[in-house]
Design goal:
The structure holds three protein chains of three kinds. By secondary structure, chain A is an all-alpha fold. In chain A, 78% of the residues lie in helices and 0% in strands. In chain A, helix 2 runs antiparallel to helix 3. By secondary structure, chain B is mostly helical. Chain B is built from 24 helices and two strands. In chain B, helix 15 packs across helix 20. In chain C, helix 6 runs antiparallel to helix 7 and helix 11 runs parallel beside helix 13. Chain C starts with a helix and ends with a helix. The relative contact order of chain C is 0.10. At the B-C interface, strand 1, helix 5, helix 6 and helix 23 of B face helix 12, helix 14, helix 17, helix 18 and helix 20 of C. Chain A: It is a multi-pass membrane protein. Chain A: It catalyses: a quinone + NADH + 5 H(+)(in) = a quinol + NAD(+) + 4 H(+)(out).
Chain lengths: 99, 631, 523
């Protein structure tokens, strides 16, 4: 199979993820969309690795998975504590990032 | 002998320092310290005078170099003193009259709690005035020039709690500053022209400079002289200066400081001789002022202000003479010295009258005082006879020579100037007779003041009358002493030069004309103030009288043009500074602030909008990279 | 290697500042004495510089040079010429007096309060400022100079904003608002100036490849460094703008009246007498040496601006109602004289301008500090609130008058010498400018005497009738300064001897000679 098709899939997944981040309000969904984008990147990395015939891309993909796992831990903890204090998981409710 | 010159200045300077820094513990003896140091300076002056007399006429210039004052490249101002016949004359006048007035002040200021400070200021004045006449270059002269201005400021405003005195002091200083500006520019012009401003080099190189430059320098010197000597158009301060204590008026505003302008012109004779145009201006200023002062003197009811008008007028004579060039220099100085005697005497007499009359200055409230104050009456009377030019007294000799010299100028100018001088003599006789009659003759016109205390006119103590007597002796014999054998002429001639003009009139004709004027003036005054009683309240008077009472509207002019105009100018500038200059800056700040307010709205705190901008930015970067590839 | 005297003079107050700030809050008085001792020590070092300095010797003396930021060729280079020596002397001399005058200015408001009013901070900031000013007088590396030229804004900002004058007709709150306005305005003005200068500093490095003043000046003189006319002019303008803000020159002056009005009198003295002098000093040292041709090119415009400053400042001083503001505008007028003297490009003008910097420092210090004593007694800055003070406090009034007379340049007091030199120096090259500037002396008499008349003379007002005369501490501050004013007025030779050689060098930098007298020119 042509490896370029994997790149098309990765681009599609990334776009879905980005759109989700921008239009969904639920923090959990936003979070999952971010994961989707990360995995799209992983897919692209692995595909490139295959195309170029070296293992660098696959190793970076492992790193990305580790970072994603760590992010899930921290991110979920934040979302849970936000939900506890505000009884809502909407990101627009947490517009406290300005002075 | 040269080394004594600095001591002349040092003695009164020491007095000023000790008295002003010494504080209250010197209150008891301060006035005697001041008087002693003034007298010490006089004695040193006499020693130096004797030394000069012992030398031949061309050896009579002593110089003393103290130190280099301001040395910057070509600009070399030294602290060097020059004592020659001209400065010697002034030194004796200043220290002599000065010592007498110190003595007089001991009595006059007896009841003033700040007497020590008064003597400190008087000593300061002596030191500055001596510096002025002893300086060997124009910058050092400028030092003394402003120094006497300061002393005059301090002394006019001595009674600072009186707003009128404080205002008069400020006015005197400011008007003088305008004149000082002229002197400063003259020094700069000299430096730009000759590369120096020391007397010797400047005078010897006058021939190398263009007449235009010399005229400019001379006119600037004249401006300075006008300020210090209260000549038109800078005369307005002198009348107000009478707010100061009377000894101050006698010493500073009659005998010495106000004549500094004449000194300046005569000292700069070489420059003026090379600028005939400027000389003409000098004579015009002198002639106008001598009439101006005389007219003002006729209308004033305040005895000191009448005398101030007279001072202005007499200095006008001197300036006129100084403007005539070598024909007049010597007589300008001679009149200056005799005037120093009789005008100081007259002021001291006026002070004595005021002392006996509870500081009343309005002559309409005097009358018949000759019975109460015989010594004052006699000394004042002798001064009066001297100033109107009564034959044989000092004013007769000195003023007559000036009138002669004015005619000797020749041509139409000579006739006009001589005529003005003659007219001035008549008016002088009128206003001085008026002062005399209103003060010492007629019925007594004083009344109890609002507290019910009636003045008890009495003769002043000896410490005050002795100086008056000495000055009266000078007023009587000074002129004759100087004129017999042309002593004064021979003494000063080596410094100022002298030439006899060719007068269209003989000396006797001029003298006779002067006598006629004198008689007319006295008779007119007698007709108005002697024959009939003087009204206590001044009559409305003619237009001229009313204008003269207001100093011929000079102050009104100043007020409208300078004071009002200046106030408007400063006020609008303050406004402009706030709105325009500051406004531009504040406006810039405000627009930056507005811009940042608008930018701030982008930061709305919504995570998703930040995400949009991040994606947008990333997309832009990618697009830019692709575009660069494509190109 | 010899003892680094210049570094020591700057480091001592810097260390003193840290030490003073570290004194515990309760030991307030100890902190004051420590700061005073440090400032006196600095003065001793300044005297040592004066003694070691040889007027006839090399242009820059006591030089020190170390590599600092090698990548950009920035070096730690110090050296002093006569002009710098005079100004370091002035700075080190004034600081102890300023501290003594402001002895109680930063005390806690209510007695016995343990609340931390930063007394230590006040004195530490003054010392820090002193250190920075001194090092900017010493720096011969453009970048090093720039850093401290900018850094001195920091302590000054806090001194103005944090310790300002608490006298205000509408109470403490209004005073506080005005104070922060003044501090921010001061900071913004000077930051903008500094920013433009930074651009010019970088530009200079790009063109010249070095930050060293001596190297660049030498390369310019022997022709190995050529600058295009346009480049030189832009760089000159960048430098000059910053200095003109600091000096301040019309129309960049409006920060000064606010800053002086709102700060305490001692801080106001530091601003005009010391910090602003860095601006005029830098014009002489950097503008003229680095960009001689551009300086000559800009001279006509600068002279006109200086002339406007002189007359405009004086006229505005006449129109002020506030004592400190009046003195501020008078200073603007005087800075006009200094800048005029510098750009007249004559020996008299430049020597006069340097002397003027020193003398103006002394005379403003006297006038401003006494005005501060007066204001602290009555609690008002408005001229109209005073009257008849000379009757109740004759010594205060007398010393105030002397300060005023120095301000109006009376002969016998130091400012006369410098003002006359500036006028003569300007007149010989630009007669019309000299004549117009001379009007300034009449206006100076006007605003000074009006101030004296309205505050000190006339009948005694009820509010001032219980006013105490100068205290011993205050007299100790004022008397030596007055003695110095008189001494330098009668015998300025010690200072001119130091300054003249440096001025001669500067004149040769700009390839100018004094105009010949008309008489010699004709021959």
């Amino acid at each position: 199979m042509n490896p370029v098709n994997y790149l098309y899939l990765a681009a599609l997944l990334f776009t879905i993820g980005a759109t989700g981040v921008l239009i969904r309000r639920n923090a959990i969904v936003v979070f999952m969309c971010i994961e989707l984008m990360l995995n799209a990147c992983n897919l692209a990395l692995v595909a490139f690795s295959r195309m170029h015939g070296n293992l660098d891309g696959q190793i970076i993909a492992f790193f990305t998975m580790v970072v994603a796992a760590a992010e899930v831990v921290v991110g979920l903890a934040i979302i849970v504590s936000l939900f506890r204090s505000r009884h809502s998981a909407s990101v627009d409710d947490a517009s406290l990032m300005k002075l | 002998m040269e080394n004594l010159i600095a001591l002349l200045i040092a003695a009164p300077l020491l007095g000023a320092a000790v008295l002003l820094v010494g504080g209250r513990r010197l209150d008891a003896v301060g006035h005697w310290i001041g008087t002693a140091l003034a007298a010490a300076s006089f004695v040193i002056g006499l020693v130096l005078f004797a030394d000069l007399l012992g030398r031949s006429a061309d050896q009579r210039t002593l110089t003393q170099h103290l130190f280099s004052w301001i040395p910057v490249a070509g600009f070399q101002a030294d602290a060097t003193f020059r004592l020659d016949q001209l400065s010697m004359t002034f030194v004796l006048l200043i220290t002599g009259v000065g010592s007498l007035i110190h003595l007089y002040s001991v009595g006059y200021m007896e009841h003033d709690e700040r007497r020590r400070r008064f003597f400190g200021y008087l000593n300061l004045f002596l030191a500055a005035m001596l510096l002025l006449v002893l300086a060997d270059n124009y910058l050092l002269l400028y030092f003394g020039w402003e120094g006497v201005g300061l002393a005059s400021y301090l002394l006019i405003g001595f009674w600072q709690h009186k707003p009128a005195a404080a205002t008069a002091a400020k006015k005197a200083f400011l008007v003088n500053r305008v004149g000082d500006m002229g002197l400063a520019i003259a020094v700069m012009l000299m430096f730009a022209t000759f590369g120096t401003f020391a007397f010797g080099p400047v005078f010897s190189h006058v021939g190398d400079a263009s007449e235009g430059r010399l005229t400019a320098i001379a006119l600037m010197l004249l401006l300075a002289a006008c300020g210090k000597s209260a000549q038109v158009p800078l005369q307005s301060w002198l009348g107000d200066a009478m707010e100061g204590p009377t000894p101050v008026s006698a010493l500073i505003h009659a005998a010495t400081m106000v004549t500094a302008g004449v000194y300046l012109i005569v000292r700069s004779a070489a420059v003026f001789n090379g600028a005939p145009g400027a000389q003409l201006v000098v004579t015009v200023v002198g002639a106008v002022t001598l009439l101006f002062g005389a007219i003002v003197g006729c209308a004033k009811d305040d005895i000191k202000k009448a005398l101030a008008g007279s001072t202005m007028s007499q200095i006008g004579y001197m300036v006129l003479a100084a403007g005539l060039g070598p024909i007049g220099y010597v007589f300008a100085i001679m009149h200056l010295v005799t005037h120093g005697f009789f005008k100081a005497g007259l002021f001291l007499g006026a002070g004595s009258v005021m002392h006996g009359m509870n500081d009343e200055v309005d002559m309409r409230k005097y009358g018949g005082l000759r019975k109460y104050m015989p010594v004052t009456f006699i000394t004042f009377g002798l001064g009066y006879l001297a100033i109107i030019g009564f034959p044989g007294l000092s004013g007769f000799f000195s003023k007559d020579r000036i009138i002669e010299a004015a005619f000797a100028k020749g041509g139409t100018e000579g006739w006009i100037l001589g005529g003005a001088a003659l007219l001035g003599a008549a008016i002088t006789a009128f206003y001085m007779t008026r002062v005399m009659l209103m003060t010492f003759f007629g019925e007594k016109r004083w009344q109890p003041d609002e507290n019910g205390t009636e003045p008890h006119p009495h003769e002043s103590p000896g410490v005050m009358t002795i100086p008056m007597i000495v000055l009266a002796v000078g007023s009587v014999f000074g002129g004759a002493f100087f004129s017999i054998g042309d002593r004064f002429l021979h003494w000063l001639e080596p410094v100022t030069g002298h030439s006899e003009g060719n007068s269209p009139l003989s000396a006797w004709t001029v003298t006779a004309a002067t006598m006629v004027c004198l008689v007319i003036g006295v008779a007119a005054a007698w007709a108005q103030y002697g024959r009939k009683p003087v009204p206590v309240v001044a009559p409305r008077g003619s237009l001229l009288t009313r204008a003269a009472r207001r100093d011929l509207l000079q102050d009104d002019f100043n007020h409208v043009v300078l004071v009002r105009g200046g106030e408007h100018l400063t006020r609008s500038l303050v406004y402009l500074d706030h709105t325009l200059v500051d406004g531009v800056v504040n406006g810039t700040a405000a627009s930056v602030g507005g811009l940042s307010g608008r930018m701030r709205r982008l930061q709305n705190g919504f995570a998703r909008s930040y995400a949009v901008s991040m994606f947008g930015g990333a997309a832009l970067l990618v697009a830019a990279t692709l575009l660069m590839r494509a190109v | 290697m010899s003892f680094p005297l210049l570094t020591a003079t700057a480091v001592l107050p810097a260390v003193g500042a840290v030490a003073t700030a570290a004194v515990p809050a309760a030991r307030r008085t100890a902190a004051k004495w420590l700061a005073l001792a440090v400032s006196l020590g600095t003065f001793a070092l300044a005297v040592a510089i004066l003694v070691r300095f040889d007027p006839g010797g090399a242009r820059y003396q006591l030089t020190e040079s170390h590599s600092w930021i090698a990548a950009f060729g920035v070096r730690y280079e110090l050296g002093v010429d006569g002009i710098a020596v005079a100004l370091i002397g002035l700075t080190a001399l004034l600081v102890p007096f300023v501290m003594l005058a402001g002895w109680h200015d930063a005390d806690p408001l209510e007695t016995g309060s343990r609340r931390w009013r930063p007394t230590q901070g006040f004195f530490a900031l003054i010392l820090a400022l002193e250190a920075m000013v001194i090092i900017s007088f010493e720096a011969t590396d453009v970048f090093l100079f720039y850093i401290f030229f900018e850094a001195m804004l920091i302590p000054l900002y806090f001194l103005i904003g944090g310790f300002g004058d608490r006298a205000h007709e509408h109470g403490e709150k209004a005073a506080s608002t005005q104070r922060s306005y003044a501090a921010v305005k001061f900071l913004l003005y000077n930051l903008v100036g500094g920013l433009i200068m930074l651009a010019a500093v970088i530009g200079l490095y790009v063109v010249a490849g070095s930050f060293s003043l001596t190297e660049i000046a030498q390369a310019r003189a022997n022709g190995s460094l050529h600058m295009a006319t346009g480049v030189e002019r832009w760089l000159f303008l960048g430098f000059f703008f910053a200095f003109a803000v600091k000096a301040p020159l019309w129309p960049l002056h409006t920060w000064l009246p606010n800053a002086m009005q709102e700060s305490t009198a001692p801080v106001a003295v530091l601003i005009t007498a010391v910090v602003d002098k860095v601006g005029t000093f830098a014009m002489l040292r950097f503008c003229l040496q680095l960009f001689p041709e551009a300086s000559k090119w800009a001279t006509p415009v600068i002279l006109v601006l200086a002339l406007i400053s002189i007359i405009y400042g004086a006229l505005l001083a006449v129109g002020q109602r506030d004592i400190k503001r009046l003195i501020a505008y008078a200073s603007i007028s005087h800075f006009g004289f200094i800048i005029m003297g510098i750009f007249a490009m004559t020996s008299q003008g430049q020597s006069g301008a340097t002397l003027y910097m020193v003398n103006h420092g002394l005379s403003t210090a006297v006038l401003m500090l006494i005005a501060g004593f007066l204001i602290s007694r009555r609690g008002s800055r408005l001229i109209a609130d005073y009257g008849g003070v000379q009757k109740v406090a004759p010594v205060l009034a007398g010393t105030f008058l002397i300060g005023g007379l120095a301000t109006l340049s009376l002969p016998g007091l130091a400012p006369f010498v410098s003002e006359f030199l500036v006028l003569v120096g300007t007149f010989t090259r630009y007669p019309a400018v000299g004549v117009v500037a001379t009007f300034g002396i009449v206006l100076a008499a006007l605003y000074t005497l009006v101030l004296y008349q309205r505050t000190m003379t006339g009948p005694v007002r009820k509010e001032v009738s219980a006013m105490p005369d100068l205290r011993v501490r205050e007299l100790v501050v004022v008397a030596p300064l007055i003695v110095l004013l008189v001494f330098l007025g009668v015998y300025p030779k010690p200072v001119t001897d130091i300054v003249n050689p440096a001025v001669k060098q500067t004149m040769s930098d700009v390839h100018k000679t004094d105009p010949k007298p008309e008489m010699e020119a004709a021959k």
